[in-house]
Amino acid sequence: MTESKNLWGGRFTEKPDETFAEFNNSFKFDRRLFAADVRASIAHCNGLFHAGVLTRLEAEKIKNGLMTLLKRADYDRNYFSDVDAEDVHSFIEARLVQLIGDAGKKLHTGRSRNDQVATAFRLWLREEIVEISKLVREVQRALTEAADRQRTAVLPGYTHLQRAQPVLWAHWCLAYFEMFARDRERLDETWRRTNVLPLGSAALAGTSYEIDREAVARELGFEGVTANSLDAVSDRDFCVEFVGACALIMVHLSRMAEDLILYASSEFQFIELSDAVSTGSSLMPQKKNPDALELIRGKAGRIFGHQTALLTTLKGLPLAYNKDLQEDKEAVFDAADNVEICLKVAAIVLRNLRVNEEKTRLAATKGYLNATELADYMVHKGVPFRTAHDLTGKIVLYAISVGKELHELTLDEMQKFTAYIENDVFEALSLEQTLASKAQIGGTSPERVYESLDAAMTEIEREEESR
After folding, report:
1. Is 160 a catalytic residue?
2. Measured between alpha carbons, how far is residue 224 from residues 241, 381, 412 in Å?
3. Tens-digit pLDDT profile for residues 77-115
4. In the chain, is it the N or the C terminus that has fewer CB atoms within a 10 Å radius of its CB?
5. How many Å apart are CA 44 and CA 41, to the nearest integer?
6. Of 265, 274, 281, 380, which is the active-site residue?
């Protein structure tokens, strides 16, 4: 009797329908797990040897064969083309048997594709998380560089997309720095929960061979082993967490992109984007479109969709493994690919933009952005805040009616509303004092912002040096 070409055909007498075979095939996308699966297979081979399942000669033959496959894949661009394989795992086994003979057929002893897939996926994702975290750090670095280039630049801060209070440009940059710092923390947490070994769980009930799972885990750099075989082969929480972390990265990238798109518009003219990340119009010669930022904003929805798809796939699955879980790969792969390119492009945008400081400073002095300072001034004179707020509102209304900013009103005009206002009010209403007064931790005073910026730059440099 001839053996089946796939890993499961002994029980079957008929070939799979061609359409179903194509539908069932995952090799076209899961082959990117090739190197991770080979690494896991080498560790499993060592586990079988120490359990007495393989002789030393067999184990060495298998490991040498697996290393040969890795090398061939590195130098042969067509290694994965024109291959009739159901998935990357059957591909590796078939190539191994082809290379070393029957010894290769012993490698799958004591494991199932269920724990094999989960192990390779965790290995691959573990490295991907590290790479994405580095790219997030590069965006943080680009933000600090943008802030440092124009430390004294001031622009209006907004609430409800209405001018609210002036802030330093560096303060704006550091707001996104904080968002990305949380993203890196989430990636670290996801990495820790990903870094647990499922190999040894077999199909669902565990293996009957005396394989030292903890030794295999140590060889592969896992921090521990899964505690329950049913959970181990069906758990994809780490995938959901990863895509969720990617989704939040994209939220922050998209928010930043939206700010910069607005700031680059003719209506704002706060920043100038580099030609390197902009395009023109096929019809209108004057146009300079922020396509890089718009694509980042657009791709955010794509990642959100992957998170929803994963949650929906998992929500109704009974224990343990189900073929539905094949859908995890493309969602995770695509999320990783798109987050990476978005982070790379975002860093390029930040490193090549310039703030129009004259324009932003002028905007920060228009629109009664120092109204809160007027209310606070009266509070310091002994007026209850609610009363001061009401009086300031009336003064603003008057200023609007006469077409003046608050600092352009005369002392006589302001004293019509309250005698608490004196000549020192004009210093309190100045842009410099408006900024300087926000000197508490987290505020936008130059002292606090430069302190935070220097700390952020030092943190990045130290991390870079420690790697």
Report:
1. yes
2. 19, 63, 75
3. 889 986 778 899 999 999 999 999 999 999 999 999 999
4. N
5. 5
6. 281
